[in-house]
Every structure is written in C-alpha cells, then in structure tokens.
Write a structure and sequence with these properties.
Elements: E1 11-12, H1 14-22, E2 28-31, H2 35-40, E3 47-48, H3 56-64, E4 69-72, H4 77-88, E5 94-97, H5 100-106, H6 121-142, H7 149-164, H8 168-174, H9 177-180, H10 187-191
Parallel strand pairs: 1-5, 2-3, 2-4, 4-5
Length: 196
C-alpha cells in the first residue's frame, strides 16, 4: 500500500478531508468524542477513541509509517487536546479537522449513525445548567436571596467555557458511565490494525 507523507499543514477542512478519504489514501481518522455523541452521528470511517481513553503509545506505531492521523471531535476543542497529548508523547502527523463533526455536517457531507446513542454531551450540559439555574433563581425568589449564588456560579462557568473553550462540566460528564458505556478503548487501535 502506498504511503503518503502527512500534510504540511496541521489542520484540514472537512471537504478537503472527504476528498482525500474518497481517494482511499492511507490515513487514520480518530473521533475523540463520547460514545453517545459518536452514535448520534460520525464521519464515515472514523474510529471512536474517547479523549480520556486516548493512549499515545498505541499511536506511535501507527505514526511510524507516515500516514496522517486526522483527529476530530464535535467542534475542535477536544481534538486539539488530543493532538497536544499525542504530540507531547512524540506522535507526529496529527492533523486537526477544522470545526470537527459539526463542520462536516454543516458542509452537507455524509454521516453514519449507530443509533441508540444518548444525548450529545453539550445537550447534557445545557440541561443541567438550565435546570440548576432555574432552581437557584426560584429558590432565591421564594426562600432566600443567597440561592442567587447558584445561577451566578453557573453563569460564570458558562462565561469561562466560552472564553477558554474548556467546559469543566462537559469534561466531568464525559467520565460518567452513561457516556462511556459503548466506548472502544484505545487498545482496539492496536488490536484492530489501526483506525481507518
């Protein structure tokens, strides 16, 4: 099989990635979202390895043959963390899929659905933050004004997430059993001959 050098750029647009995949060039395509998000819709040929399960040692062997490793998540934040983790461990050839799965969908490109997936991670965050904010506001009005601290903290958390691209609640929810149930551990990369 012909080996191609990784692209010179460290990012790629979804349409360009689709063009490369359609040419059947050797490449690794890794989705680092949760199993529920992956089941709800993913790029065809992507291999699920949640960010928390990502083991750089499994990728060193894959990177040795020079094939690019395309990393994506929902919109790019977790994929950037995965690439940093891999590069820190000496894995070269990682390429960020700009905008992640959402950009792929927005471009009208095909997705595969595994069905039976749970709620996407960001919807879980929205439900929890909305519920707790409403509860805190109601308690502040009905019981004691000190309960206004609850929506204040949640609002500050959302502001921090928006400014930094890091949502502590989303990271915590990703570790919950219902978001890990159908996970493919990083070991499946080594056992399956690598992600495709």
């Amino acid at each position: 099989m012909k080996t191609v050098a990784p692209p010179a750029q460290s990012t790629i647009q979804p349409r360009e990635l689709q063009r490369l995949l359609a040419q059947a060039l050797p490449a690794q395509l890794i989705d680092v979202r949760t199993p529920g998000e992956f089941a709800a819709g993913h790029v065809p040929g992507a291999r699920l390895i949640p960010l928390d399960d990502l083991n750089p040692a499994d990728f060193r062997r894959l990177a040795e043959n020079g094939d690019p490793i395309y990393i994506l998540c929902q919109s790019g934040g977790r994929a950037r963390k995965a690439i940093a983790k891999l590069e820190e461990a000496g894995v070269d050839g990682c390429v960020l899929v700009e905008g992640g799965t959402q950009a792929w969908i927005d471009a009208g490109l095909p997705v595969e659905r595994s069905g039976g997936g749970g709620l996407p991670l960001m919807r879980q965050v929205q439900i929890i933050v909305g519920s707790l904010s409403g509860l805190g506001a109601a308690l502040a009005l009905a019981v004691n004004s000190y309960f206004a601290v609850i929506p204040l903290i949640l609002g500050c958390g959302l502001l921090f997430a928006g400014l930094t691209g890091t949502c502590g609640l989303a990271l915590l929810l990703a570790k919950m059993p219902w978001n890990r149930a159908r996970s493919c551990s990083a070991g499946c990369v080594a056992n399956s001959g690598g992600p495709s």
